[in-house]
Amino acid sequence: MRMVDIIHAKRSGLELTDDQIQFFVDGVVSGDIPDYQTSALLMAIYFQGMTDQEQSSLTMKMMESGDHLDLSSIPGVKVDKHSTGGVGDKVSIPLAAVVAALGIPVPMISGRGLGHTGGTLDKLEAIPGYQVEISEQDFINQVTKDKCAIIGATGNIAPADKKIYALRDVTDTVDSIPLIAGSIMSKKIASGTDALIIDVKTGAGAFMKTLDDSRNLAKALVGIGKGVGMQCMAMITDMNQPLGNAVGNALEIKESIELLKNNGPHDLVELTTTIGGYMAVMGNVATTPEDGKQMCQRVIENGDALASFKKMVADQHGDATVVDNPDGVLPQAKYQIELPAKVSGVVSKIVADEIGIASMLLGGGRQKADDKLDYSVGIYLHHKIGDSISAGESLLTIYSNREKIDDIKDLLYDNIEISDSATAPTLIYETIE
Prior knowledge:
The chain is of the alpha/beta class.
């Protein structure tokens, strides 16, 4: 069997066999297939798609390419959450602490940024000392003790996906339903979790731009999960504007801490507690999602969730004083530059993906797989869609380590509109169970 024949088959729109998919996955893991051929097949999949059988086969072969975590020694129903990625989407960080504070174990294996989106691991690494790579036994011990840990996939969990994931980011093949589904579910099945909720983003800042595509991805993910006996559901949520106010690694950690101090932005709080409510039902501590949502709000208000986050950071070797003094611990940008509104009116449009690109161009994201991140940079929105603003008032603050940023200002002005009126976007569109 030759890799070039597999590329040709998929390029021609043919269905790949299980043996061909196995050959591809094995070759990626062993390094026998060079990156340029892997990239060629990813592009062919992007354009030709995959059948349900191919998609399922790719997922399972990637999952079987490495180890399968055994979390059975951790008491209780292990509940995880995954997002398909967006701009300002830091939900996983406070959510893990909130749900853990309810006594539900949350073994969360997360990823890095893709394209214009931020990655949970990148954000957590803005905390000095925080280790996202810990041993399997340390992971199990921490979830047993603290009820939560957020780590990256170990070298032995879905190693095929680890290589493919990095190449997707730099070959513009990120927004492919079979590749997204295979990537997410191979890691989640291998991670040994009992229940999973998937936040499927839709809109300008998401990889799925339309509600129909988002629904198709959600159904594919839930179908794969249920097919292997996992409790699984999906929620389709908005990404036409950034979530919360902060975009950028350190800025988003600070905003996550503000949420856990009961001072988070409304949309971020609403989504975190709503998803947490469903996780509370999955974890058998609430009878309805609404009851679970109220429980989540209580542990935020009484400080239990903040204490849970602080323990997790400390046990993963991070500087836990970040909770008490974020600005004194997190990296700080040299310049804070205001972007004033040119006219008065109502903010009617904030193109999420372009805001993410602006943060990436400042150094907060990767343009190449080996780019080093500047954790201190980013954008803080002072107004969201539906907010009134006067000419000269600051739309946002740009956190930068270079003084001249006319290119960033132009990009932001081009992608924020002020009109006479605006309709605020829907935050949560539907759930798929």
